[in-house]
Structure formats: C-alpha cells, structure tokens
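can u pls check wat happens w/ pyridoxal-5'-phosphate
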Amino acid sequence: MPKFRKIIFDWFGKSNYFVTLSYSHTCYTFILEVNIISDTVTKPSKQMLDFMLSAEVGDDVFAEDPTVNALESRLSKMFGMDSALFCPSGTMTNQIAIKVHTKSLDEMICDIDSHVYQAESSGFAFHSGISVNLIHGINGKINAEQISASLRPGFDWQPLSKLVVLENTTNKGGGSYYTLDEISSVYKLTRDKGLKLHIDGARIFNALIETNEPSEKIGLLCDSISVCFSKGLGAPVGSILIGDKTFIREARRFRKVMGGGMRQSGILAAACLYALNHHIPDLKIDNTRAKELGTILKSKHFVKQIKPVYTNIIIFILADHINTIDFLNNLKSKGILASEFGHQTIRFVMHRDITPDQFDFLIKIIESL
Ligand SMILES: *Cc1c(COP(=O)(O)O)cnc(C)c1O
C-alpha cells in the first residue's frame, strides 16, 4: 500500500490529491489529506490498542487500578516527586492544580497567551474564584524579573499574588521552552515570596528532547507539574498531575468533585504507558520537521512574520493582503488541513501521524504556494 500511494503521489504530485486510499461500494476515491491542525489529531495505533486491551484493571476511585497506579508511580519518579494523579484531560490537571494552590480572592500570575488563561474557559475564576495577573512575555515565556515586578504589595483592595504558572512548551507562544536554569530562577523567586509554582507541561517531552535535560530535576523546581499524553505522545486520552503527597491527596478530592474519578481507567493509562515506552524519541522528528517547514515559510511572500520555531509548533502571521479564510480554503483544496490561531494568524503542528510521504507532500504544497 505505501508503495502504491507513492506512485499515485508521484503521478499527481503537482495537483491536489492523495495519501489515503479509501474504498466505497463501487468506486475508488483517492484523497491525500495531511492534518496539521493539532498534535491532538493522532489516532491510537494497532499496537497501542492491543496493549490497552491487555491492561490489568481495577476501580481507580478506590485507587485499585494496577495500571493507573503503575502510570502514576512511573511519572512521579520520572519527575522526581512523590505522587501523581491520572486525569482525563490537561485542562482538568491544570484546574485542579490551581484549585489546590489557591483560595478565592487570590490571583495567579501567567503569560497573557497561556493556556490556563486563553483556553480553559476561565476555569480559574469558575472553580477557584481567583483573579489573573497577566504578563506580556516573550513568545509565551515569562521570567523572574517580570514576575517580581507584577507582584501585589498586599493592599486590602487587591487580590493576593499566590501562584505562578509557567507553560512548557508554550502553545500560543509558538512551542518555545524553558531550560532548567530559567525554571530555577522563577522557582527561587516563588520561594522568596511565598508563592506556589505550577508547570503546565502539556508538551514537556517536546522540550526535554531538545534540551536533553533530566526530567527528575524539574520536580525539585516546582510545586506541581501536569503532562499530557494526548498531544504529541499520541495517546487517545489522558493527562497526569504530579506533586507531593499532601498536594495529590487534596487533588484527588477535586478530581472527584469535577467528575474526573474514573473506574477501570487502566485501559486508558495503558495507552499512556505505551506512548511513554515507544513514542518519546519520535518527538524529535516532529520538532525537526517543524524547523524545516519554518525555514521554508520564512521566505514565502504570504508570510508577514513567523515566530521562531523551537519544537513542533509553527505560528505565522499572514501578509496583510491575504484573507485568512481564503488561505485556509486554498490549503484545504490542496489537501492540507490547518486552522486559524488568532487574527491573521495560522498555526501548523507536526505530529507522529504524518507519514514521510505526507510530509514530503506537505513541503511540496507549501513550496508551490
Ligand atoms: C492541550 C493543552 C492543555 C490541555 O488540554 P486538554 O485538551 O484539556 O487536554 C494544557 N496546556 C497546554 C499548553 C495545552 O496545549
């Protein structure tokens, strides 16, 4: 099949088609589609599904699912902390962390583009009754100096600064990441000022594969960290929240009240374990592909500005005369599915379900625009 696809691709390389071949009743249709909307579009492989089916399970609300327990203990060790909690989504792990670290009338400090502010339906206000103190960082990253300058002196009429959230890698910031040194300087400030530090590490492994820094050290430099398995790691569902024992005991209560207590969730945890065992090195391919595509985009007439490409995310602003919807429809007509990411802004995301043929095709299409 791959060979056949390649022949079809070479034939029609200049036009709009093909990488998957589908059969419907009496006619064959060829559609080559490359979905670069997000790294969440990946689907579980046959091997991952087999592994999920073979998972030993129990009732995780009673903490008796051996596969969930194995995943939690693996991740807490991996990040040098005591405990962990498996949850359905990264939004839930972030929201639980915010809830445990703050009380109403507090505030969290984060970058203006951060997921906890932009993409979690204002859950910080809804669940925790807190305010937000936004920093205009650089490519989604904030530093100790900026945080220090944003702290409230503690007057009655102000919210209390309580929590700092760092996003690693950044999403709207274009996949930029923090080194351990950078995290460390923020951590020191939070210790001096009595603040908590949460790391939204939805794509932390895309960062670690670039820096080659040890994951265990991160646990020494924050109060909690959340990690997603449903992004580049390719699991269908699942995120984990990591912290110390007291924090996780409290987090379990909030997971329950948010409706995130699952029963035989070992089936899902197995997908995450499979991803950890097999998919981490491939994130390097995603990052490398993104850089290659970024270099091509940089010289294209339709690109006004492009954020530096650090990991698997590419964000660019279209030239003023280009209409975003027309641009996306044109891409779609050529088989490339992408999406708008703010005014005149496009995001492309590399992920493990893009085959080598699809990547070649994608490059050809972008070069031809
Ligand atoms: C995707 C993402 C999350 C979590 O999203 P869910 O879809 O709820 O799993 C959190 N933070 C960042 C930076 C993300 O990109």
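The chain has three domains: 1-32, 33-43+281-368, 46-278.
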